Amino acid sequence: AFEFKDSNIDLSRTLMVGDSLNTDITFANSAAPPIASLLVQTGNHKVHHVEKILTSPDPDLKSIPTFVAASLKDAIL
């Protein structure tokens, strides 16, 4: 896990934005402490991929985003 404990980054005001559950979102959730994440559906993964993970018998919760939007333009933060 990537640790932010010695940085000056205010993680309560940080949002990881990405289009990949396996890299971007997993990175955000694996950070110490975890970072809020936004999956934008303009690339690799879409909301149906998140739904598939959540309904699987053993869901990988590290790849579940905090928020989902069609694009960054459509995200209302």
Estimate the global geometry from the Cα principal axes: globular
**Count of alpha/pi helices:** 2
List the uncertain runs: none
Class from helix and strand fractions: alpha/beta
Distance separating the two termini: 26 Å
Measured as a percent range, the helix fraction is 10-25%
Number of strand segments: 3
Strand order in the largest sheet: 1-2-3
Q: Quaternary status of these chains?
A: single chain
Outline the biggest β-sheet: 3 strands, parallel
Strand content: 15-25%
Give the topology string: H per helix, E per strand: EHEHE
Radius of gyration: 13 Å
Average pLDDT over all residues: 91
Describe, in plain words, how this protein is organized in 3D.
The protein is α/β, with parallel strands linked by helices. Helices cover 23% and strands 16% of the residues. The chain contains two helices and three strands; from the N terminus they run E-H-E-H-E. It has helices at 21-30, 47-54, and strands spanning 15-18, 36-40, 67-69. The protein has a three-stranded parallel sheet, covered by helices on one side. The longest helix is centred in the N-terminal third of the chain and has 10 residues, at 21-30. The chain is globular and about 35 Å long. The mean pLDDT is 91.
